[in-house]
Amino acid sequence: MKITPLQESFSSGEISPKLYGRTGSPGYQSGVAVMENFIADARGPAIRRLGTAYIATINFNSGRVFAFPVSESTYYIFVAVDNLFIPLHSDGAPVTTNYVQNARFRENNLHWTEAATQGAITYEPDSVTLQNNDHPNAETSIGQQVVVPNTTDPYVISVHSLTPTPFRVRVGNAFEDGSYDDRIIPGGSENYTITVPAVNPWITVTNETPDSESIVTAIGFLSTVDVSSIATPWLETDLPELHGFTAPGGRIVYFTHKNHPTQKLEYSYEFDTFTFTEVAFIDPPATWADSNYPRTGTFHEGRLWLAGTPAEPETFWGSKSGDYENFTLGSLADDALQFTIAEEGVIRWMQSTKNLLIGTGRGEHIITSVEGVITPGDIQVTQQSSYGSSAAQSRQVGDQIFYVSPDGRKIRAMQYEWTADNWLSQDVTFFSDHISQPKINFTSWIQNPNNLFGCVLDDGTMALLTYERSENIYGWVTVKTEGTFIDITSVPIDGSDVLVALIQRVDGTLYVERMRASKRNYSDSWVERIVQPDNTVIGLDHLEGELVQVLADGAVQTSQTVTGGQITLDYPATNAVVGLQYISTMQTLPFDRGSQTG
User: Does domain 113-223 have CATH number 2.60.120.260?
Assistant: First the structure.
């Protein structure tokens, strides 16, 4: 009798070769042998993973990347390299002097000139919407005259848009004049460099597409002279153990490292600026000195918690209640406190959930109290398990904590089980243990829309886990690119999470790139450009010398090698997406046909 194999789901992703002979094991019927550059969707399909969009080049070979959201639609990127923080706007433009006033529209239409034909312009804090009616002559524009210091320096034009609608950017001597520079941007965010012949130019942004909207979150006319980079105490060798965690309110990120004083990065909403300083604690422990500082921390019950100095690796400290930087010890309920775990093991991470959780190199603990609130006179430490953790920062995933095992080859999910009245840890790499064998260096939780947990591996690849706990789905895949993944982070923007990656590409240089569900392009380090009248695509300097794939007006054209920052298309087109090719590969498992004898 003819048997026609059918596999209706691929949600388990790649399964371990150790399970190939166990066709009845969980995951085999929905797993594969190889799933590279796919996503194992929790509903069953294998979906090709999205490409990464190019943001910026960082002229270093190693680093870390952090994302700092400042509103629901806006974020900054900070790249930590040897003794420096390099800040970037989300489109890759430098953080520097912006000669545009009210650039994020937080003061409604102040300083902006506007014009609307068959359309409307509406302002909200952190965005302006250029809405066109369904009319062939519909057009909406906003503009501003700026004053720049001279006409010799170049300036960066930066426009951040949340929508794919193309928009026109003009720089000239009057509103809606483009005599200095005039170009169409194919949607999304863009930045580019120009020079101007006068010190008082106008910049105008226009939506010229009928029945559409452009949601612009910021406009910049930026200096290229005073580009800011921030001095930090962290050497390149320190960066792997650097931990960052956000204070309540979302305006301050604290950074800890065992060899250096705790630092903080603080955002001013009023001035749209950042300050980076060493934390000036009140009455800190005298032992916090000379390469003996807390290596990790968190916020819980109104206190800042810090832990794990080299000299006191099992000790943790809590600040005064409501006074995060005050560590004055005392016996009152709101005084700061200090406690040492009576078990061997360096404290590696802390997380705030139902309880205060602590992970050490030897085990997992909860910090509780009899009366429900931790105080100097009411504190209990109870060990929950003895798996242990590496130095990688743990992540909160729903009501669970994901942490990396001491050998860097497992991810465990720690969760409270009421039936056991205990916090239990489960190995979520168990059925795909081969994926993480190169060793996990860094992690990030990319929640929306697909519930992905990302791991940067020591061999320069990335592993992605599709995690749907309610359906018992754990689907691991491998992500490879023409380069080396160094670090990843994620940031929630407008309801979905943007994956920001630091990738070592051409000549070992770091590229900042992002992956976002709303941009469905399938090449890496891609950029979208308007095709020039001579059929060339310019602005490809970051891909110099590379063979790139080309999607022009939605059609594939012949791959080209970038020379002089540009390529020439074989056929005329209006718009082109250019990037590095990656191959998506899937290999199914042998089908279990059973036996004629049953």
Answer: yes
